[in-house]
Every structure is written in structure tokens, then in C-alpha cells.
Amino acid sequence: MAKDTLFRSADMTLTQLYVANEIGREVVSALGELGTMQFRDLNPDTSAFQRTFTQEIRRLDNVERQLTYFRHQMEKNGIGMRSIHDFSNTMAAPSATEIDELADRSQSLEQRIQGLNDSYETLKKRETELTEWRWVLREAGGFFDRARGQTEEIRQSIDSSDDAPLLRDVEQANGSAEAGGQQQSFSVMNIGFVAGVIPRERMGAFERILWRTLRGNLYMNQSEIPDPIIDPERNEEVHKNVFVIFAHGKEIIAKIRKISESLGADIYNVDENSELRRDQIHEVNSRLQDLSNVLGNTKRTLDAELTQIGRSLAAWMIVIKKEKSVYQTLNRFSYDPTRKTLVAEAWAPTNSLGLIKSTLQDVNDRAGLAVPTIVNQIKTSKTPPTYNRTNKFTLGFQTIIDAYGTAKYTEVNPGLPTIVTFPFLFAVMFGDFGHGAIMALAATAMIYWEKPLARGKQDELFGMAFYGRYIMLMMGVFSMYTGLIYCDVFSKELSLFPSMWTWNFPEGYEPGQGTVRAERVEGYTYPFGMDWRWHDTDNDLLFSNSYKMKLSIIMGWAHMTYSLCNSFINARHFKTPIDIWGNFVPGMIFFQSIFGYLVFTIIYKWCIDWYAIGQSPPGLLNMLIYMFLQPGTVEEELYGGQGTVQVVLVLLAVVQVPVLLFLKPFYLRWEHNKARAMGYRGIGETTTVSALDGDDEDEEGGHYANGNGHGRPSAESEMDGGAMITQDIGGGEEGHEEFEFSEVMIHQVIHTIEFCLNCVSHTASYLRLWALSLAHQQLSIVLWSMTLANAFAFDGALGVVAIFLMFGLWFLLTVAVLVVMEGTSAMLHSLRLHWVEAMSKHFVGEGIAFEPFSFEVMLEEEMDELM
Amino acid sequence: MANGWSLLISVIFIVVFCIVAWFFSPKGENQTVWRSTLVLSAWSCWLMWAITFLAQWHPLINPERSDLRPEYVNGPVKGGSMF
């Protein structure tokens, strides 16, 4: 059997399992640990409530809720949880009794925690009330003392002058009491009061309402409580004010009480007598003392209990989540009541079947059951899910491809070449040895500290970088290489080899007068990358633009030709020769006769020493344009017979268009008519319509409709259950769609137009390699000259400080702007080149991703919850 | 030192590298990944080098500067460092 490689999807087999009812849970649990099977839903018409194991799932839901409750309580009380990484055997499957124990335990724990919590909250509330009361007593005491002083004043003022009509009644009614002097009390004066506490932000409204309803007949005193008071219900700090309102008459007092209660104020009982008040304060203080003792005890008990739970909470959560997913999977099985067996259907990689069988055997042996678990392979024409086996290195690259679309089953997976092409095209745009080194070092650090970093919390940006750490490593390494080729290290040159240019100063040369032109060292070409002497020259850009533009075209041509070849491999693999002759060959000829020829002329032009043969080098851009506008006439000849060659090439390209357009559709029509003439009919053409629906859901439905058995019964269908299940598989026969010539033709016309236009636009699109690399280089030159270059102008102690500071600034901006920002932008461009320019040449897509039932995957998805 | 023959030599070198990479890739389930990655990397890097080499083989323009001082003469001649 062929090995599973990243080149194409692993071979998948549809398997059928017959599991004895008693060990259903254990079997699914073992398969969940294995994580290589994707179970099909065999009861698609049954609602979630009607399924077999709904009861169990409900029970587990309840336990999960309790565990979440513990978690919330722990968070509320600031108690840490032991990380799931501390459990070595997290992957061990729990037994049924363990689950029951856990359920009972969490039930009793929940009651206990709830009880503790309730009493804690009640106590806390009581404490708050007492604290507020204490404040009221303290503050109100101050009012009373001041008020007493004022009554003296009031009385004196009344004594002296009679212009206080409101108080005169009081005077008259209590005339005798005046003599009492010392023991003057408000009750005697018929003035009542209300004291309490109100949230500070309501104070204004409270005052206004009182003023309006009582028409100003009140005397109000208030003061702020300096410490915030904690609201036990919401666990928030609230700022409150103490108020004391004096008013005249019982009704008014009652009204004030009502208003203050409706505004959320708490009214406390304060005695006006200072002696009694002192006693009250004492009492409140002692009660607060007792209360805080009790509170401390309760809190300690609660904390101890929660800490105890926190030690194993993560493990319990894993157990419950696993157990729940097991029952959810069991619900996808169909139950055969007569035989007491569960029947399941699942996709599995063919290479894993041996492992699956031995695992099931193990489970059976452990359970000591005589009835074995049967694994059948079913032959089906249904399209299997696509499964590309990845490891931690290839995962990131495969994700790039999967983000665009899932590859068709066993088509060439572009993820494999992407491992190189993606970082390489990135590096062409990002080429700088220094910046590449920073990126490679960052990636290496992330890989070195992989495990601790994976466990920690990651924010979004870092999480993305961490996920793509191997992509980053490749990008960094390739950027270092392209940086050496471009001869750029932080925008400076690196003179690895002797230059091929020497400066030839004219006689009497003065700086700033005229230019110096370098002369070539005879017969010597700079061996690796760009010659460093091009750096800082006046015509540097002239040379590098021409070079990088051509570089982009050649790179693009190579990348697209490579991708186009994949379509050939696909056609060979799917055994559709018409795709080779009708699509691949004409497409390739079309592309090569225009852009392959362009690449050829570029290289040819480079290879000729134009000055040595005394000719002026022809412009390639005009050549390509006039190749189409005036075929046959060449103004500046690149080589002899160029006109004829170009005419032939243009004709060759033009001829491919009708071939692309008509060959495939007419061939398919001919093939179809031939089959018809011989008396064949499409399977299912006359039977039910449901057979034609490729949709997964419809196929399931089709199983009920196609009683006429056009499904292909499997070899093992002598068992009734088997026959029933396998029939619906046949319902999904593909490739028997009715042949519709117009549809095929339209599809091909679109494909042809797209292909021909894309050849042009995609080649042009690769010029982004040049544009971004130019931008990156120029930006780093600007950064250098604006920061460090300025610092070099200083000398002495100032120079030291300037260089130190400027280096910091330069380095910071290099990392932030040139590496992170520019890197992101180059990465997005590289991504586009892969998704659009390369993958459009061969990628079919339309696959279904393989989503195995795996505890590992499930827990990873819910990892955030557990951390 | 480096002339037209470099191209041929480099191609031979890359071909040899690819053969070695093909046969000495670690066996096991990742063999395909190793082979594809090594061979493709080698050719990508070679292509980049070859394009750069070709572009400078018969250059059409020479470097020009107007900010050099006569004392510079040829500055760091052959192999010298500018830093």
C-alpha cells in the first residue's frame, strides 16, 4: 500500500463497525483517543431529543454546568486552577464508574459550595449594613452636635428679635421647656429626623425631589463617606453619602422616609441622645467584630474547598468533555434492537485500518466479550473526505492552502511545494540579510521555547505568529539568502568578494564636480549576488530596477509553469486524458510561446556582450508589443531570423485558442453519443432524482427514497443491518450526471477566456515582487539615513550619546516597521501569488475536509476554556 | 574567477545536490516533504543566483558616483571592507 504523503490526500476507506451495545462507550472512547475516524450521521432525520443517548448527554451537561459553576466561583474568589498540563494521564479514558462517582461528587460539592456561598453572601450583606450604620451614627452624631449649637443660636435669635414666625409656635408651645436649657431635645421641639445612607450619584436627585415635594420645609445635612462601600451582591465598590434630614411633623417625616426608600437609600435608626448613640456605636462595633470573625471563617472554609476542587477541576472537565463527545458520537450510530448491536459508518485513512482493528480488539479483550467488534470495508463511489497528514512543520503551510479551499480527494496538494515557494517568494520581496536574520531568530526562539509558549496565553497577533513559526523560520532563512543576493544588510552593502568595478578618477578630479564612472575589471563577473559597488551610486536604481523587473518575470514564469504542470499530474491521476490534450497541452503551448519566449529573450539578451559585437541592445518591452501589433517586422534584431520565429510563435499561440475552446467539449459529446449509440444509459438516469443530488444531506434522504436498490450493496450485505445502511451510500453515485453539452461548452468558454487573459495579467502580477523589494530596500535606506547616519555626524561625548540613542530608535523602527509591517505586507502579497496566480493553474478544490472524531482536536479547540 | 563556466558548474552542483538530497532524505513518513523541500529550495536559490549572475555578466551600464573624494582612490580594493 502506498505511503501517505503530503503530495495528495491519504487513501480513505468507508468502514462499517458492528459494536456490541455493552461496549459501545468504550469502543468510541478508544477511537476518540486514536482520532482517525470520521463518523457519519446515520440518523439524520432524528432530532437531537429523540436520539438514543440523550439522557446521558443531559446528565453530563448538568455535571459540566456544575464544574463551570466551580470555575466561576474560583474566579470570583481569585483561586488559581491547576493547569491541565500538570496532568500526565489526561488522555486516559475514564471508566463508567468513574464518571458516576464524578457526577455524584460534583453534585454534593455544588450543594456545599452553594451553601457556603449563600451564608457568606448573607453575612457580607449584614456586614455592609452594619458598616453603613456605623457611618451614619458617626456622621449623624456630628450633625446633632452642630445642630444643638444652632438651636441655642436659634433660641437666642428668637429671644432677641421676633422675626422668625415659623419658630414662634414652637417657642410658644414649648415655652416652659426653654428653661431646661441643657436637655433641649428635638422631639420636644416637634422636629423629627431621618438618617441614612444613599449612593452618591443619587444625591442630587434626592435633594431636588425632597425640596420640591416638601416645598423647602426641611433641613438637610449630608457628608460623604470617604471609603467606598462594597455591594455584596454585585461585588462592586459604591460611593455613598450619609444624610440626616430634619423636618417638622410626622407626615412629612413619613414622606421623607418613603422618598428615600424609593431612591435606594438605606435608613438607619439613630438615637438623638448622645449617650444612647455612644452605646449604639459600641454595640455596632462589637457586632461588626463578631461578624468579621465569622466571615473570615466562612471565607477560609470556602477557599479551602475551592482550592481542593481546583486541584482536579481541569482533569474533571476533560473527562466530562470527552464523555459528552463520546455520547454525541454514539448518537450518530444506528441501533439494531434485534441483534443488540450498534452499527456505525466512518471514514478512516486506509493505512490506519490495522491500528483501528487492533485497538478494537484490545477493547474487546479488556471487556472480556465473546462477540467481536466487526470492521468492514465498504466499496463506495461516494467522494471520500480529503485528508492531508500534517506535522507541526507542515501544518502552517497546509493551513495556507486550506484557507483557500479544500483540495479534491487525491488531487495534487499545493501544500507540498508551498513549503518552499511561499517563503521564497516572500524573501524575494523582503530580501535583506539583517531583517531576515531578525525574523529567523524570532522564529527560532519561538520554536525553541515551543512548549512553554504553547501553554501560555497568547494574544491574537502573537498567536498568529506563533502558529506560523515554522513559516517564519523558512521566510527568515530565505530572506537572508535573498538579502545576500541583493547585497543588502540593513540597507548597507556586504563586500564578500572583490568588486568587478574599479573607480577611474579623471585627471584633476575634484569632489562635487562631475561624476566618476567605474570601469569593469576585465573578464571578471561578481560571483555571488549583486556587486556591492552598486551601493550608493547615482545610477543604482537604473540597474537594479531593470534587474529586479526581469527577475520577477522569470520567477513568475517558473512558478506558473510549475503550477501548470500539476494540472498534468492531476489529469493523469484522475485518468482523464482529454484534460491533458484539451487543457494542459494547448494551455502550456499558449503560455510558453508568449511568456516562455519572453523569458528566453531576457536570458538571451543577458548572454550577449552587446558592446563587444558593436550592436545596440534592443528593448524587450517594445519587442513583445510589436510581436503582436506587427508580426514579422522587427526593428532592432535580437538575433537572426527573429521575425519568422515570432510569427510562428504568435500563430502557435493563436491556434491554441480554438483547441482550448472546442476540443474538450466536442470530445465529451462524441464520447457520450458513442455510449448512447451502443445502448448504454446513465445509471440512475431513469430512476429517482435523488440519486443525482451530490449533496450530503440529500443522499441521506435518498436512502429512504431509493427502495428500488440502485445502490450498490456491499459484499458484506448479507447482514440485514448492513444492507440497510449501505444502500444509501450507493445513492451518492457521482459522475452520472446527465450530459449537457451547452453546460460543458459554456464552462469551457469561460475557462479559455480566463486562462488566456490570466496568462497576461498573472505574469504582470508577479511584478509585485520587484515593486515590493524596491520599496523595502528604499525604506530601509531612508530609515538609516534619517537616524543612524545623522548620529555619525556628531563626535566626542555627544557622539556617543547620539549614537546610543539613535541606534535605539533605528533598531526599534527596523523591527516595528521594516520587519513586522513590511513583513506582513510581503507575506500577504506572497499569499496572493499562491492563491490566485499559482493555484488557479491547477487547483480543483471542492473537496470535503476530513474531520475525525478526536479527543485531542476537541480539547485543543476548547483549550482556552480550560486554561 | 567567475565567468560563463560558472553557470554550467553551478547547474552540475545543484543536480548533484538534488541527487544527494533525494537519496539521503530521512526515511519515514516525512521523506516526501524532505525531498520536495530540499530539491525545490535548491532550484529556487539557484534560479535567483543565476538571474543575478546573468544580469551582471555583460552589464549595459557602469556604476557612476559624484560624491567620491579623490583620496578614496579605489577605497577598499578587492576584498576590502567598507565598514
Structural account:
The complex is a heterodimer of chains A (867) and B (83). Chain A is α+β, with helices and mostly antiparallel strands. Chain A contains 26 helices and 13 strands. In chain A, the strands form four sheets. In chain A, strands 1, 2, 9, 10 and 11 form a five-stranded antiparallel beta sheet that branches. Residues 161-165, 167-184 and 686-735 of chain A have low confidence and may be disordered. Chain B has a domain at 5-57. Chain B is 57% helix and 2% strand. Chain B contains two helices and one strand. Chain B has helices spanning 5-24, 31-57, and one strand at residues 64-65. Chains A and B meet through helix 10, helix 14, strand 12, strand 13 and helix 15 of A and helix 2 and strand 1 of B. Strand 13 of chain A pairs antiparallel with strand 1 (64-65) of chain B.
Strand content of chain A: 5-15%
**Class per helix and strand makeup of chain A:** alpha+beta
- Measured distance between first and last alpha carbons of chain A: 42 Å
Low-pLDDT segments, ≥5 res of chain A: 161-165, 167-184, 686-735
Global Rg of chain A: 43 Å
Descriptive tags:
A: 867 residues; alpha+beta; Alpha-Beta Plaits; 5-stranded antiparallel sheet; 26 helices; 13 strands; 8% strand; extended; B: 83 residues; mainly alpha; elongated; disordered C terminus; membrane (chain B)
Provide a compact summary of the structure.
Chain A contains 26 helices and 13 strands. Chain A is 59% helix and 8% strand. Chain A has helices at residues 24-34, 54-76, 96-160, 165-173, 203-214, 250-262, 274-330, 353-367, 394-404, 415-430, 433-448, 450-455, 460-467, 469-486, 540-573, 577-607, 620-629, 642-677, 696-705, 720-730, 741-765, 768-786, 788-791, 796-838, 855-861, 863-866; strands at 12-20, 38-39, 191-199, 218-224, 229-231, 236-238, 240-248, 266-268, 334-336, 341-349, 374-378, 501-503, 516-520.
